[in-house]
Amino acid sequence: MALNEMMDRPVVKKELVAFMRDRLKRFPGELGELEKTANERGVPIIPHETAVFLNMLLGQIKPKQILEIGAAIGFSGSLMAQHVGAEGHVTTIDRFEVMINHAKANFEKLGIADKVTLLEGDAAEVLPTLEGPYDFIFMDSAKSKYYEFLPHCIRLLKKDGMLVIDDVFQGGTILDDEADVPKRVRKIHRRLNKLMDTVLDHPALETSLVPLGDGLLLIVKKEEFDFGYILDEINTENQNRA
């Protein structure tokens, strides 16, 4: 299982990160134990300060239908499931068998398996099949895919719904010139910058950036519209590479 590299690449002072991770209240019960075990083993879950922020945000929004892209071991899905109420539901997507097995086991352990549907497969193939609408979408998957998944998220998000995208600062390197970025991460760099350029000034979106973890991008859809041109752009790129 891959280690969570971004846990050690915060975008604010290390002393402040240490303060937040130490002083912010721990989660009670099985959820807290899951977080503690994951952190001790270096399993990739959202850092504690991000989880606390997400928990408070969801407590105010009170969403009924949630979509998550990137289930991992099920920690964030379990956290979100605590906020959907008796009639709500969380749908989460993952393609890695080891993560899927861990997530399913954790959903059972926390007693929320009836509130969570885990869709197994590549999000690029799963997202077009979903109908929504969702009140809240949390995207925490391959950063090179965020720009590609954005049109699907906007389509599936209800009007005035919120999309939260995790790890958008790439350790602060999205500010660097592409020529100074290692070749192995240039696609991520390019796509993250495209994502920012697309949403930050869009007239139908309200956006905010929060420097927790490796950066959170918050997007509220104020009007119905689509990003179909992005899908056309991605398809053209894929055809040119073939």
From TrEMBL:
Q: Which UniProt keywords apply?
A: Methyltransferase, S-adenosyl-L-methionine, Transferase, tRNA processing
The Swiss-Prot or TrEMBL record annotates one GO molecular function as:
S-adenosylmethionine-dependent methyltransferase activity
The UniProt annotation places S-adenosyl-L-methionine binding at 46, 76, 94, 122-123, 140
- What does the record note on quaternary structure? Homodimer.
Q: Which reaction does it catalyse?
A: 5-hydroxyuridine(34) in tRNA + S-adenosyl-L-methionine = 5-methoxyuridine(34) in tRNA + S-adenosyl-L-homocysteine + H(+)
Principal EC category: transferase
E.C. number:
2.1.1.-
In its UniProt entry, what is this protein called?
tRNA 5-hydroxyuridine methyltransferase
* InterPro entries per the UniProt record, alphabetical: Cation-dep_OMT, SAM-dependent_MTases_sf, SAM_O-MeTrfase, TrmR_methyltr
User: Its function?
Assistant: Catalyzes the methylation of 5-hydroxyuridine (ho5U) to form 5-methoxyuridine (mo5U) at position 34 in tRNAs.
User: What SUPFAM superfamilies does the entry give?
Assistant: S-adenosyl-L-methionine-dependent methyltransferases
Q: Which GO terms describe its biological process?
A: tRNA methylation
What domain of life?
Bacteria
Family per similarity comment: Belongs to the class I-like SAM-binding methyltransferase superfamily. Cation-dependent O-methyltransferase family.
